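Q: Please design a sequence for this.
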């Protein structure tokens, strides 16, 4: 069965900004804001999948990216 989604995680960067990493495909990107990292993730996934046989990667045509964000709890 082919997957219709690509899972990604966004977490705070070690120094600043955010890092996004896909779980099923080797895509990692970063950005200074959440908007930047989300845009960069979309572009990086599109570039990675361009001219690929999606079925050989276990993906259905036109997969979507589902993003989870990891945050440290805020302390009062």
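A: Design:
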């Amino acid at each position: 069965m082919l997957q219709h989604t690509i899972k990604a995680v966004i977490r705070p960067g070690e120094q600043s900004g955010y890092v996004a990493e896909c779980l099923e495909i080797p895509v990692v990107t970063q950005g200074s804001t959440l908007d930047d990292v989300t845009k960069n993730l979309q572009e990086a996934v599109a570039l990675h999948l361009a001219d690929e046989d999606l079925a050989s990667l276990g993906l259905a045509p036109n997969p979507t990216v589902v993003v989870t964000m990891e945050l440290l709890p805020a302390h009062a």
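Q: Thanks. Anything notable?
A: Helices lie at 34-49. The first helix runs from residue 34 to 49.
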